[in-house]
Amino acid sequence: MTRPARDAELVTEIKGAYEGSADAWASGPTTIYRRFAEALVAAAPTSLDGQNVLDLGAGTGVASEVLTDAGAQPIAVDLAHAMLRHRREERPPATVGDAQGLPFGAGTFDAVVAAFCLNHLPDPVAGLAECRRVTRSGGLVLASTFPSDGNHPAKAIVERELERSGYQRPRWYRTFKQHIAQLTGDDAAFAQAAWDAGYGDVEVVAIEVEAGLDRPELAVDWRLNMPHTIGFVAGLDDVARGELRARAIAALSGELPTSAAIRVLRAHVP
Ligand SMILES: C[S@@+](CC[C@H](N)C(=O)[O-])C[C@H]1O[C@@H](n2cnc3c(N)ncnc32)[C@H](O)[C@@H]1O
């Protein structure tokens, strides 16, 4: 199988995973991702007030909300229609689209904000090149990712409890972790991807986001409602699901860091 075919298959699987997990995402991870979105938008080097901004990989819309609060006019794009349908009456205009082939003309936006979207791409250079194409000259691309070496401990602890219940990572997630996550999870690689995509100036900054993650319930609801876990969790009967949740909460009780580490790429279009 050629690499592009494998990449296309992975993108289709990622789309399927998010199509099937919009309600779960809204009930768990959204609370934490809202904090991440606030940190991302706050990292803009200049005001986004009055700017036309593409919210790329918008999901259930947390970055759009923060952008609107900052005075920007966001337009949302996501691969998964179900994610965009969440509270759609209250959200800015949205359309389904792939970050690696955006449905907009050149120079449409003043800025692109991509909250944890580029880290899903088999080819982040292609995604960053698309962001550059749809952004006007001098405009900003602001993108968040997770550092490969900076996992919050709740991730491993809850996964261990999932495995005790019989969970195995789905195939797409194994591929994602093995081949995709480090393309943006390594700071130098993320910055290099932006240079390769033709940006004029590039920096990757480390930000520690206060996310309330020392609360075990919040951390467990985050991890049990992710696209790679919710299929398994939803398939458990009520008793088994309740036991898993209780075990995971107990396993997290104690000293947990309240914050999580993210990385933000800031790059300007020449
Ligand atoms: C981790 S979620 C983040 C959602 C939202 N930005 C937030 O911060 O809560 C990643 C989002 O990117 C979307 N996504 C993944 N691959 C994509 C692609 N190739 N093009 C557009 N969106 C994509 C997913 O459907 C999902 O909604």
Keywords, please?
47% helix, binds S-adenosylmethionine, 19% strand, 270 residues, globular, Rossmann fold, 12 helices, single chain, alpha/beta
> Which architecture name does CATH use?
3-Layer(aba) Sandwich
H/I helix tally = 12
Average pLDDT works out at 96
Strand content: 15-25%
Strand order of the largest sheet: 3-2-1-4-5-7-6
CATH topology: Rossmann fold
- Give the ligands present: S-adenosylmethionine
General shape: globular
Please tell me how large the radius of gyration is.
Answer: 18 Å
The helicity comes to 40-55%
Low-confidence stretches: none
Structural class: alpha/beta
Number of domains: 1
- SSE topology string: HHHEHEHEEHEHHHEHHHE
CATH hierarchy, class: Alpha Beta
The end-to-end span amounts to: 37 Å
The CATH homologous superfamily is termed Vaccinia Virus protein VP39
**Total strand segments:** 7
Description:
A seven-stranded mixed beta sheet has the order 3-2-1-4-5-7-6. By secondary structure, the protein is an alpha/beta fold. The mean pLDDT is 96. The N and C termini lie far apart (37 Å). It contains twelve helices and seven strands. It binds S-adenosylmethionine. Residues 11, 14, 18, 33, 37, 57-59, 62-63, 78-80, 83, 98-100, 115-117, 120-121 line the site of S-adenosylmethionine (SAM).
How would you sum up this structure in a few lines?
With 270 residues, the protein is an alpha/beta fold. It has a single domain (3-268), classed as Vaccinia Virus protein VP39 (Rossmann fold). It has helices at 3-19, 22-27, 29-42, 62-69, 81-85, 124-134, 153-164, 171-185, 187-196, 216-223, 230-235, 238-252; strands spanning 52-56, 73-78, 94-96, 109-115, 135-145, 201-210, 259-268.
